[in-house]
Specification:
Blueprint lengths: L2 H12 L17 H13 L3 H14 L4 H13 L3 H14 L6 H12 L3 H13 L12 H22 L11 E2 L9 E7 L5 E8 L3 E10 L2 E2 L3 E2 L10 E6 L5 E7 L8 E9 L2 E7 L10 E6 L5 E6 L9 E6 L10 E2 L10 E6 L5 E6 L9 E8 L2 E2 L3 E2 L10 E6 L5 E6 L9 E6 L9 E10 L9 E5 L4 E5 L5 E7 L2 E7 L7 E7 L8 E7 L19 E6 L9 H16 L4 E8 L5 H21 L7 E9 L14 E7 L1
Parallel strand pairs: 23-29, 31-32
Antiparallel strand pairs: 1-22, 2-3, 3-4, 4-5, 4-6, 7-8, 8-9, 9-10, 11-12, 12-13, 13-14, 15-16, 16-17, 17-18, 17-19, 20-21, 21-22, 23-26, 24-25, 24-27, 27-28, 30-33, 31-33
């Protein structure tokens, strides 16, 4: 189904009309035919609420007025009042079952929206069989029937799908974000900063104008969303915003701007704190002369997934991928192919932090309704067959705009499901484990001069036991990337003018309330640091610290993983000399603290030995007891530690 037809269907059946609330629209007449004409004029003007009031008045005047009941059913359907719609349609059929063929399809649609596929199929079948029969509105409603004829096969497949749907999946129903975010209008395409504190979404006012809104987290809830000002929103459409994972910018769709090449193109809004400081159309060959929208950028910022109606597509909207070029421009977009795209609409892609898990909406793949959410994974160089996210995530309404936070569990999306506040609403839920991406960590950090705190632009080599990553800090020393969580990592920097830097840290799984922020201080080569625990001439050093629980010399899981990463460096670069020095706090006697600090140091040496670091390379293993003997005179939990000092 092409995009024009899809939007026509949504316009006719799913979205609210532009509501007129003027009480003067209603006429308290006692003439049923006159009242019907007034209602029809109100419908033509898009004043559906007023038309409903007039039609309800009409059927009170004349209870057996089949046309009025038929139109009342249509207005109820268009405003999501499905039970009332069914009652009105069936009253119309009882009075005159040869009035309208289109009404049969609409009645089936109402039952379908109420998740009753059996009765929906009954009315769709009646609609199909009536095609060559005589009925009153055959000419008047021919346009509607053309649309419904094109929808019929898809709706029958939807019904079959719902008949066989597995409803035993035990997950909580998606949770509506509430009135501070959702309204009687459409809200969709949610995206959240990596710290979980800011939400950006699109609102479509009166089915006419799309704008981008911003909300802040307030405990477990969200504050009232407010539209971005004139620095972003215009009288034309803006929407489909997606944050870069670090939250310093977001991409969005802007339409009919001075520099827009197609109807809508993709733009970037750069932020400083909360303020938009620059809005620019993407450079390069990503945008086209067609509709380009709904961008989603990978965590490393090098891949852009988006939806477009360009001519080389497979029908309707297709999902495309553009890659960032070395010069900062975006390259020619590539269609994701027949495994993802169909003759229907594939929209609103979201690439998860792992860069391999893609969520999107489709009307072409088999599903429940006007667009279901699917997931596909990039494996062995190809995209896997899309999997429907199933019940109760998808419904007989439209679902669109999936977003998954860094922990891989918490998801947000928009849905037209029943009991919302109106049109598309934004919901959240916890993804079942089998539908999750690989859990990732948002790793943020700064590289600085250890003496002056000056920020340094450099290359950071980061690795865990299986993977290697390269990060580039900017002129402010800042860097950001996504890496798998619950792993130990080594950080290595070889920057001219500074000592070789190495550090090891364990990165916990993301909890979506804060990033993992690391600080990497580089020591200038001319800086000679005297080590308190070693006599003799001053030497350059690198100190890696491991911490222990109170009164314990057992290594934590975090320490074990970090020591494993450290051992890889020591086995690879044999010229390192290692000194291991243990400390304790001052809560025990001097003799007891001495013994405890020695046990802690020996525990470190023992594990390094297990990882292949020979004892010969350890030039000194010492327990210094109370922290009073340690550098900087740290206290409390900082005292219960072992320093591994590396020297060349």
């Amino acid at each position: 189904m092409n995009k024009f037809l899809t939007y026509l269907i949504i316009f006719l059946l799913s979205h609210h009309w532009s509501f007129g609330q003027d009480s003067n629209d209603f006429r308290d007449t006692n003439n049923a035919k006159e009242s019907l004409r007034i209602a029809e004029r109100l419908m033509n003007k898009g004043k559906i609420e007023a038309a409903i009031k007039q039609l309800e008045h009409t059927v009170k005047i004349k209870k057996n007025f089949a046309v009025a009941h038929r139109l009342l059913g249509k207005t109820y359907l268009e405003t999501g009042q499905f039970k009332k719609a069914i009652k009105a349609y069936e009253q119309s059929f009882e009075i005159d079952d040869k009035l309208s063929r289109a009404a049969l399809f609409e009645c089936g649609e109402a039952y379908f929206k109420l998740n009753d596929p059996e009765l929906a199929m009954y009315f769709f079948t009646r609609y199909e069989k009536m095609k060559d029969n005589n009925y009153t509105n055959v000419k008047k409603e021919s346009g509607l029937e053309i649309t419904y004829d094109l929808m019929l096969e898809e709706r029958k497949m939807n019904c079959d799908y719902v008949f066989n749907l597995d409803t035993t999946l035990i997950i909580d129903e998606p949770y509506n974000l509430g009135k501070n975010i959702n309204s009687k209008y459409d809200e969709y395409l949610p995206t959240i900063t990596s710290d979980g504190k800011k939400l950006v979404f699109t609102r479509k006012l009166k089915d006419v104008n799309e704008d981008i809104y911003l909300s802040y987290r307030d405990g477990d809830d969200w504050k009232k969303g407010k539209a971005y000002g004139n620095s972003l929103n215009t009288d034309e459409n803006e929407g489909m915003a997606r944050f870069e994972m670090h939250g310093k910018a977001f991409y969005f769709s802007g339409c009919m701007r001075e520099d827009t090449e197609g109807g809508c193109d993709i733009y970037k809004a750069t932020l400083k704190d909360e303020e938009i400081i620059e809005v620019s159309r993407l450079e390069g060959n990503l945008n086209s002369h067609e509709w380009d929208s709904q961008p989603s950028v990978s965590c490393d910022g090098t891949m852009m997934f988006f939806s477009s109606t360009r001519k080389d597509g497979m029908g309707g909207g297709d999902i495309y991928l553009s890659s960032l070029m070395p010069n900062g421009d975006w390259g020619h977009a590539v269609n994701l192919g027949a495994m993802i795209n169909t003759k229907g609409d594939e929209e609103a892609p979201f690439i998860a932090n792992d860069g391999k898990t893609l969520y999107f909406t489709s009307t072409g793949h088999l599903g429940q309704g006007d667009g279901d959410l699917f997931v596909s994974r990039f494996e062995n160089g190809i995209w896997s067959k899309p999997e429907n996210l199933g019940y109760p995530i998808n419904s007989t309404g439209k679902e669109i705009g999936m977003y998954v936070q860094g922990n891989g569990k918490t998801a947000f999306f928009a849905s037209e499901r029943r009991n919302g506040t109106g049109g598309l609403d934004i919901y959240t839920f916890e993804l079942p484990e089998e539908l999750r991406p690989i859990p990732m960590v948002h790793l943020e950090g700064y590289v600085t001069n250890a003496e002056t705190d000056e920020r340094i632009a450099t290359t950071i080599n980061i690795s865990n036991s299986k993977e290697k990553f390269i990060a580039q800090s900017d002129e402010t020393g800042w860097f950001f990337l996504c890496v798998p969580g619950n792993k130990g990592y080594s950080f290595q920097i070889n920057e001219n003018g500074y000592d070789y830097f190495i550090d090891a840290q364990f990165l916990d799984a993301q909890d979506n309330t804060s990033n993992n922020i690391v600080k990497l201080p580089l020591i200038p080569k001319n800086n000679v640091k005297t080590v308190a625990v070693r006599k003799g001439s001053p030497v350059r050093e690198k100190r890696v610290q491991f911490f222990f629980e109170f009164d314990s010399f057992s290594l934590t899981k975090k320490a074990e993983l970090e020591l494993k990463e450290l051992s890889k460096l020591l086995n690879r670069e044999k010229d390192w000399k290692v000194e291991v020095v243990g400390y304790a706090d001052n809560s025990g006697s001097a003799d007891y603290n001495k013994k405890l600090s020695e046990k802690r140091a020996k525990a470190i040496v023992s594990l390094l030995s297990e990882y292949g670091v020979t004892i010969d390379t350890v030039v000194k293993t010492e327990g210094l007891g109370s922290i009073a003997s340690a550098p900087n005179n740290d206290t409390s939990s900082q005292s219960r530690r072992v320093d591994v000092v590396l020297r060349k």
